[in-house]
């Protein structure tokens, strides 16, 4: 299992360019490691309050939701739920500078990521038969 979590620092690029770059990385992984299962983590919201970079990251995630299912062995894990409060703010308890995660912020991401990794690592009956052959 390969986890890809990139793109938020490409804030000078358009959402389409960022999503295209992430897709290119996944395609390269598929070429170099065709047996690998790839997890792409969605971009997190950023900034204490709503802002253009937060909107761009949301657009990147939207584009990835549409494009990644067309690629083999890849799943998008959207981990931004719960970071933005009903008033549109992000808590410094989750992101101390409204970009980088705190321990609590990482915990919100690591639990679903760990569950997905464990699910992907379980061999299907077909995979077990192929490994024994």
UniProtKB/TrEMBL annotation:
Cite a single GO BP annotation.
lipid catabolic process
The cellular location(s) given in this protein's UniProt record come to: Cytoplasm
Q: Which GO terms describe its molecular function?
A: 1-alkyl-2-acetylglycerophosphocholine esterase activity; platelet-activating factor acetyltransferase activity
**Hydrolase as a keyword?**
yes
**Entry keywords, A to Z:** Cytoplasm, Hydrolase, Lipid degradation, Lipid metabolism
Which residues belong to any copy of the SGNH hydrolase-type esterase domain?
1-107
Q: Which GO terms describe its cellular component?
A: cytoplasm
Spell out the reaction equation it catalyses. 1-O-hexadecyl-2-acetyl-sn-glycero-3-phosphoethanolamine + H2O = 1-O-hexadecyl-sn-glycero-3-phosphoethanolamine + acetate + H(+); 1-O-hexadecyl-2-acetyl-sn-glycero-3-phosphocholine + H2O = 1-O-hexadecyl-sn-glycero-3-phosphocholine + acetate + H(+); a 1-O-alkyl-2-acetyl-sn-glycero-3-phosphocholine + H2O = a 1-O-alkyl-sn-glycero-3-phosphocholine + acetate + H(+); 1-O-hexadecyl-2-acetyl-sn-glycero-3-phosphate + H2O = 1-O-hexadecyl-sn-glycero-3-phosphate + acetate + H(+)
Tell me where it mainly resides: cytoplasm
EC code(s) of this entry: 3.1.1.47
Positions the record marks as coiled coil are none
Q: Does the keyword Cytoplasm apply?
A: yes
- Annotated SUPFAM superfamilies: SGNH hydrolase
Report the InterPro entries cross-referenced here: SGNH_hydro, SGNH_hydro_sf
Family label: Belongs to the 'GDSL' lipolytic enzyme family. Platelet-activating factor acetylhydrolase IB beta/gamma subunits subfamily.
Q: What is this protein called?
A: Platelet-activating factor acetylhydrolase IB subunit alpha2
Write down the species: Ceyx cyanopectus
